[in-house]
Specification:
Number of helices: 9
Number of strands: 0
Strand content: under 5%
Low-confidence stretches: none
Radius of gyration: 18 Å
Largest sheet: none
Shape: globular
Structural class: mainly alpha
Distance between the termini: 11 Å
Number of domains: 1
Helix content: over 70%
Mean pLDDT: 92
Oligomer: single chain
Order of helices and strands: HHHHHHHHH
Amino acid sequence: MFSRKELMKYRQIRYLTIGAGILLAIMLMLALFTSHRLDHTDEAFSQWVFTWRQPVLDTFFATVTDLAGAFGIIVLSTIIVLTLVFYFHQRTLAFWYALMMLVSNLLVNPLLKNVFQRERPALSVRLVEAGSYSFPSGHSLGAVTAFGGLMLILAYLYRNKNWRTPTNIGLLLLIGLIGFSRIYLGVHYLSDVLTGFALGAFCLGLSVEILNRHVSNDS
């Protein structure tokens, strides 16, 4: 994905992967061994978030959360992959993005959901419908992998730093809003979202490491 000189500039990706892996391990250990204490913290945080509810915010967060829903992720991923293949002629980059999205969202996340089988918040507090288990948050993972992957692609294709910073800030803000929306809408707990973020960042960073090694070996 990057040349050897460029890899030095993107060393923070490796640090991000390690940090995300540590946070992910901590969250998984907490879920396994201190679930009652975690539940208490999650419930308290959710109740605090629910005090913010009002019709305008209900509509706003319901719209935001759909950006990382199944349909939103499929549309975004398809557009990115097709653009990389047919406009930029970056087949390797397109294959990396598609495979990373498929493995993290359709394999890793469902696997963890079925391992932990954590029930979602009560139906009485939900503002939208949601199926499957709660831990970790698939929307949070999807937001990090989809929009985080887009950040890396844009950084690779365009070297103009003048607009890169505001673009990255905007995408990071969107990721945060999507995660928060899951709590606000009453379909996830704080720990679900944090674990989804950590899992998404770990999958994204690990996939970049694998891709870079593959490209280095081929060059």
